[in-house]
Amino acid sequence: MHKRAIVIVLLSVVAWTCLPSILLHARDKDKGDTGRMLNGKVVDRQGNALTDAVVYLSNTKTRAIKTYIAGGDGGYHFPGLSPNVDYEIYAEYKGRKSDTKTLSQFDTRQQVSIDLRIDMK
């Protein structure tokens, strides 16, 4: 019985000694896997940036929508996207809308650029 108690104590010490290292490794691994990045520009027919256009990104599984207001260069970005989800993206500016484009889960690039064009006629 005495030997069994010693073995249990030793195993407990080893487990408590290794556990923080295992948890830190798992946390750091999660930090490194930040998902995909989607970026691009919203432009008119002539390629001019459309500042303040609203970009809509829809998760096709959950139907959750994220928005981004395009910057001075018409640029937008959506970081941390799941690699296992399809997304639909489009932009609106002064009552006009771009075509809807899709970012497929089968596109394995970590960083994807999609420009959105709005015809201002």
Write the layout of secondary structure elements.
Blueprint: H1 2-32, E1 36-43, E2 54-59, E3 65-69, E4 75-81, E5 87-93, E6 96-97, E7 101-103, E8 111-113, E9 116-117
Parallel strand pairs: 1-8, 1-9
Antiparallel strand pairs: 1-4, 2-3, 2-5, 5-6, 5-7
Q: What can you see in these coordinates?
A:
The chain is α+β, with helices and mostly antiparallel strands and 121 residues long. The chain has two domains: 1-33; 36-117, Carboxypeptidase-like, regulatory domain (Immunoglobulin-like). It is 26% helix and 36% strand. It has one helix at residues 2-32, and strands spanning 36-43, 54-59, 65-69, 75-81, 87-93, 96-97, 101-103, 111-113, 116-117. A hairpin with a 2-residue loop joins strand 5 and strand 6. The longest helix has 31 residues, at 2-32. The N and C termini lie far apart (88 Å). Residues 21-32 have low confidence and may be disordered.
Question: Briefly, what is this?
Answer:
The chain is of the alpha+beta class. 26% of the residues lie in helices and 36% in strands.
The CATH class designation of the largest domain is Mainly Beta
Order of helices and strands: HEEEEEEEEE
Low-confidence residue ranges = 21-32
- CATH A-level architecture of the largest domain: Sandwich
Annotated CATH topology of the largest domain: Immunoglobulin-like
Q: Given the C-alpha coordinates, what overall shape results?
A: elongated
DSSP summary: helix tally:
1
Structural class call reads alpha+beta
Name the average pLDDT: 84
Q: Helical content, roughly? A: 25-40%
Proportion of beta-strand residues: 35-45%
- Major β-sheet profile: 5 strands, antiparallel
What's the CATH H-level superfamily name of the largest domain? Answer: Carboxypeptidase-like, regulatory domain
The tally of strands reads 9
Report how far the terminal alpha carbons are from each other.
Answer: 88 Å
- Rg over CA atoms: 24 Å
> Number of folding domains?
2
